[in-house]
Amino acid sequence: MSLSKDQKKWIAAAVTPVVTAVATEMAVAAAKSLLEKLIVTNYEKRTLSSTKQMSPTTDTTSLDSRNTSGVQNDASMSHDNVQAQSGAVTTADTSAEATEAGTQASEVRTQAINTKLGTLTTNSTITQLN
């Protein structure tokens, strides 16, 4: 049984949106699956000079831990630290103060008028308050 050109056009017009929707849905599902895999999967890359690690969550339990670093940068959105015992040994402690400001209120000294009139002399001094 052979289809005419009009029938082929009609079938193509009816099937094209369905095929497009299915292909789009498959592409979205594949992208979502890849994204979920990247978000949930741990990543670790070791080289001679460094170890780079990325994990969505890390739970570490250790009885004894030592960390030695030349430079350490720690950036966290939230940090909770619970300790049963904490001890610190510091070999050098440097404190630098960037700004020091000193302010002194104004000091006013006033002496009253010294008046000599005939044989009468009057001396007055106003008390200074600090």
What is the number of strand segments?
4
Largest sheet: 2 strands, antiparallel
Amino-to-carboxy terminus distance: 117 Å
Going across the biggest sheet, name each strand in turn.
1-2
Identify low-pLDDT runs. none
Q: Name the average pLDDT.
A: 76
Rg is 42 Å
Roughly how much helix do the residues carry, as a percent range? 25-40%
In terms of structural class, how would the helical and strand content be classed? alpha+beta
Overall geometric form: elongated
Q: Give the count of helical stretches.
A: 1
Q: What is the beta-strand fraction?
A: 5-15%
Element string (H = helix, E = strand): HEEEE
Would you kindly provide a written description of the structure presented here, covering whatever features stand out?
The chain has one helix at 5-40, and strands at 43-46, 51-54, 115-117, 120-122. By secondary structure, it is an alpha+beta fold. The strands form two sheets. A two-stranded antiparallel sheet has the order 1-2. A two-stranded antiparallel ribbon has the order 3-4. Strand 1 and strand 2 form a beta hairpin.
Secondary structure: elements and pairs:
Elements: H1 5-40, E1 43-46, E2 51-54, E3 115-117, E4 120-122
Antiparallel strand pairs: 1-2, 3-4
What is the compact description of this entry?
Helix content is 28%, strand content 11%. It contains 1 helix and 4 strands, in the order αββββ.
